[in-house]
Design goal:
Blueprint (H helix, E strand, L loop, with lengths): L3 E6 L6 H12 L9 E6 L5 H8 L5 E5 L16 H6 L4 E4 L2 H7 L3 H13 L3 E6 L3 H6 L2 H13 L4 H4 L3 E4 L13 H19 L1 H4 L4 E3 L8 H5 L6 E4 L6 H9 L3
Parallel strand pairs: 1-2, 1-8, 2-3, 3-4, 4-5, 5-6, 6-7
Helix pairs in contact: 1-12, 5-7, 7-9
């Protein structure tokens, strides 16, 4: 069965005390996860070691970094390498989030390098793709997102692509209160799977988790996750609210 993932993206939020309290609130609720279901916390770099220590013994719970660099080491002040993340037990890394693309100029070519580096150090990339509002309104979203996949992932061989998680995030639905309908999410996820199948075949494409990210909340997660090609969510604001994220975890199918 394809993996189902509830991934929390805390972005640049919370003091250490607030982060500790939030994690404790989420962990104190018993989550009866099945073997194919995972919870991933993508949290700020200063808190990764703390969070990793707290959840390392909890089945199917993992930490993720929100970024990594294209090189494993060197004179790159302020950057964090995949090798460093691996050394403290981090299992995932979010790459290509729309905010990284927009604010920090990350290109498809740079993300190709970052994905390769993550895989070199046994990190699972959560590769983000998605279109801005003007692209959606012009009806060009399929080609736009397809280009992101092809230019950043299609250099990977079959064994490597099976280690990647994809997160579709319609940029127009991030932090705006707008949400793609469950049907819109399913339509794009099905398209992404078709694009993957064109390169790697139906069997491999059918095994790659594709998450939805765009104003997922406790009250809409179940409907969105019920779609056949939606395998969970990459959750922003609602992941900072323990009750909401608990509902989202429980909405995994």
């Amino acid at each position: 069965m394809r993996q189902q993932i509830a991934a929390a993206n805390w972005k640049m939020n919370l003091t250490f005390d607030q982060a500790e309290n939030l994690l404790d609130e989420i962990l104190k609720v018993p989550h009866d996860l099945q073997a194919h279901q995972k919870v991933v916390f993508a949290i700020p770099f200063p808190y990764l070691q703390f969070a990793q220590n707290k959840i390392s013994e909890i089945r199917n719970f993992f930490t993720a970094a929100q970024n990594c660099y294209t090189q494993s080491r060197g004179a790159y002040t302020g950057e964090t390498s995949a090798e460093m993340l691996q050394s403290i037990g981090v299992g995932y890394v979010v790459l290509g989030h729309s905010e990284r693309r927009e604010y920090f100029g990350e290109s498809n070519a740079m993300l190709e390098e970052k994905v390769a580096m993550a895989l070199t150090y046994s990190l699972t990339p959560i590769f983000c793709c998605g279109e801005p509002l003007q692209i959606r309104e012009s009806g060009a979203q399929n080609g736009y997102v397809e280009k992101q996949l092809k230019e950043s992932l299609f250099n990977l061989h079959e064994e490597q692509i099976q280690k990647v998680v994809i997160a579709y995030e319609p940029i127009w639905a991030i932090g705006t209160g707008k949400t793609a309908t469950a049907a819109q999410a399913q339509e794009m996820h099905a398209h992404l799977r078709k694009v993957l199948a064109g390169k790697y075949g139906d069997i491999i494409a059918g095994e790659i988790p594709i998450l939805y990210g765009g104003s997922v909340k406790g009250n809409n997660a179940k409907e969105i996750f019920s779609q056949p090609d939606v395998d969970g969510g990459l959750v922003g604001g609602a992941s900072l609210i323990a009750a909401d994220f608990t509902q989202i975890i429980d909405a995994l199918k």
